[in-house]
Design brief:
By secondary structure, the protein is an alpha+beta fold. The chain has one domain: Aminopeptidase (3-Layer(aba) Sandwich), CATH 3.40.630.30. It is built from 5 helices and 8 strands, in the order E-E-H-H-H-E-E-E-H-E-H-E-E. An 8-stranded mixed sheet has the order 1-2-3-4-5-6-8-7, sandwiched between helices. It is globular, with a radius of gyration of 16 Å. The relative contact order is 0.15.
Length: about 220
């Protein structure tokens, strides 16, 4: 098993090197490769999103632009939004996981300001003025679920955010009981247990409505200012 690469190994002039963020073992012993999303990997990401469900339409544009939903945008339009983020930002808009040459997972992360919708969300609106990076979405291929890929992507996200100067990383997971199973479409923010195992702490609980279940907001300090 290859050891995770140091931060210095993943930072270039633009923070986008064609080199793995980490080589990570999953729970069944498979080793996956975590990479930043670059222009030459977008086609690979399409093979994951094309498996269906919300990712096929969304392309992780939902949080980037307020008011965007399936009624007023197409998958092709949303793909272009993500491609623009790849081209224009000085950091990757997310990380991808490979099993060999097959792309099996995705996590969307970046400075909170990258995601316009967060500022207007009842649950995910900023807690304070502290600069944070946000993790808003995980996608794992249908045949690859239950193997620890989302957790490996979370570990990669921690390393990538830290290497790119983030001091605090924030997530918006769903809280489920041990052993409880929920549809994958309801777990795209990740689970609270997964975040806690990675060292995140609950810093707030918010409700979308009075009858809605409280949603935890978690943070992990990556470095002191």
């Amino acid at each position: 098993m290859a050891a995770p690469l140091s931060s210095a190994a993943v930072v270039g002039a633009l923070g986008l090197l064609p080199r793995a963020v980490a080589m990570v073992p999953t729970i069944d012993g498979m080793t996956i490769r975590i990479e930043p999303l670059t222009a030459d990997r977008v086609a690979d990401l399409a093979t994951l999103f094309d498996q269906g469900g919300d990712p096929k339409w969304c392309w992780c544009a939902y949080f980037r632009i307020r008011g965007r939903d399936w009624t007023n945008s197409t998958g092709a339009q949303n793909r272009r939004i993500l491609e623009s983020a790849v081209e224009e930002q000085d950091h990757a808009p997310g990380l991808v996981a490979y099993d060999g040459e097959v792309l099996v997972g995705w996590v969307s992360l970046g400075p909170r300001e990258d995601y316009e919708r967060l500022a207007f969300s009842r649950v995910m609106a900023p807690l304070d003025e502290k600069p944070v990076w946000s993790i808003v979405c995980f996608v794992v291929g249908r045949k690859s679920r239950g193997q620890g890929i989302a957790a490996a992507l979370l570990d990669g996200a921690i390393d990538y955010a830290r290497a790119h100067g983030a001091t605090t990383l924030e997530g918006y997971p769903v809280d489920i009981a041990d052993g409880e199973r929920i549809p994958s479409a309801n777990a795209y923010h990740g689970t609270l247990g997964m975040f806690e195992r990675a060292g995140f702490k609950v810093v707030a609980q918010r409700q979308a409505s009075p009858r809605a279940a409280a949603r935890p907001i978690v943070r992990k300090t990556l470095r002191k200012k």
